[in-house]
Write a structure and sequence with these properties.
The chain has about 350 residues and is mainly β. The chain is built from 2 helices and 24 strands. Strand 8 and strand 9 form a beta hairpin. The chain has a 5-stranded antiparallel beta sheet with strand order 6-5-4-1-7, with no helix packed on it. Strands 19, 20, 21, 23 and 24 form a 5-stranded antiparallel beta sheet that branches. It has 3 domains: about 80 residues, SH3 Domains (SH3 type barrels), CATH 2.30.30.40; about 90 residues, Sandwich (Immunoglobulin-like); about 90 residues, Immunoglobulins (Immunoglobulin-like), CATH 2.60.40.10. The protein is elongated, with a radius of gyration of 35 Å.
Length: about 350
């Protein structure tokens, strides 16, 4: 009797319909659960800087500058620091160019909570994420207690050029291309020992080309490697100090002419320094009858190599008697070693 009833149920259409409906509901429910709970592939955020920014080696405004980025340059946001006030980025056009920007310097602001946190220790940036983001630019990590240590040992001036002495005060080689940055400028690679490591206790002396010392002033120099290294002490990678020219710099009035048809006073200034000089000068015309009275003043910008000169024209609109004037020149671009040649009573008619 019981077996007969079971047989009838198994052969009924209602039973099979209920089973099919149950299976369909189970499959659909499982699919919905998987869709909302499956791990999502991480995507990269894009943004643009809203002002010119320095790309830093770590999330701190005092760390080395690895590059610069102009306003509106497309960037890819990779990660954030723990405090969520700096972001790790790479230039869209240069995937190997990575570094840190302050988050308030970009737009649109990335969804900061969705970004992985990058752990930063001196010279190393590690993204703490299981995402598909990969760093094409490898960073060198030492795994034992012996570490390299790139140090700025000395800075001085020779022939009015800036000279930096770098040394490795660590226990193992400093590996990677060495770069220097002056006063936050674009980093420049050091050409000495290209492709070779800097051995422990080894020193290199670098004459920084195109870094001229025109006058006494403060200079901020930083040095680092590319790719970055984990070194014993990053505090000795930068230095601020006062430097002065070791040779005299001199800017002079080399010639004064009268251009009569146009009623113009043409004043030529000459760079008598051993280095190129760039800056602005003040050229004044005053009366020899009353030297407290300036008749004309111009403030031209100039860029002169050694022994080069450039003329500047002054319009004699008041038709002053040329025999009653003298020309004076001054500049804050250099520590001028000879002020006697900055005045000219020599007028040629």
């Amino acid at each position: 009797m019981l077996l007969s009833k079971i047989y009838k149920v198994l052969n009924s259409k209602i039973f099979f319909t209920d089973v099919i409906i149950f299976l369909l509901v189970t499959i659909i429910t499982a699919g919905i659960v998987y869709y909302f709970n499956a791990p999502k592939e991480e995507t990269l955020s894009s943004a643009i800087p809203i002002r010119d920014l320095a790309i830093r080696s770590a999330p701190n405004s005092t760390t080395a500058i690895v590059s610069n980025v102009k306003t509106g340059t497309p960037i890819i946001v990779l990660a954030r620091n723990k405090q969520s006030n700096w972001i790790l980025i790479q230039k869209a056009s240069e995937p190997n160019q990575q570094g840190w920007l302050p988050i308030d310097g970009v737009d649109p602001l990335p969804q900061i909570d969705t970004l992985p946190i990058a752990t930063v220790i001196p010279g190393i940036t590690k993204i703490n994420s299981s995402s598909t983001i990969t760093k094409e630019k490898e960073q060198i990590v030492q795994t034992n207690n012996e570490l390299p240590d790139l140090s700025i040992e000395d800075v001085f001036v020779k022939n009015n050029k800036l000279v930096v002495v770098l040394s490795n005060v660590g226990e193992i080689d400093v590996i990677g291309a060495i770069h220097t940055s002056i006063d936050g400028s674009e980093p420049k690679p050091v050409d000495i020992k290209t492709g070779e490591p800097l051995r422990p206790a080894e020193k290199i002396q670098i004459v920084l080309e195109n870094e001229y010392v025109q006058r006494r002033g403060s200079v901020h120099i930083s040095a680092y490697t590319d790719p970055p290294i984990y070194e014993r002490n990053i505090g000795n990678n930068e230095v601020k100090m006062i430097v002065s020219p070791d040779l005299p710099n001199d800017l002079s009035i080399s010639d004064v002419n009268i251009i009569k048809p146009q009623n113009i006073i043409r004043v030529s200034i000459k760079n008598k320094s051993p280095i190129p000089i760039t800056g602005s000068a003040t050229i004044s015309v005053r009366s020899v009858l009353d030297r407290s009275k300036e008749l004309y003043t111009i403030q031209p910008y100039f860029s002169l190599g050694p022994e080069e000169s450039v003329p500047f024209d002054i319009n004699n609109k008041n038709d002053i008697n040329f025999n009653e004037i003298e020309i004076l020149m001054s500049t804050s671009a250099i520590n001028d070693s000879n002020s006697d040649n900055n005045i000219s009573p020599r007028i040629r008619n």
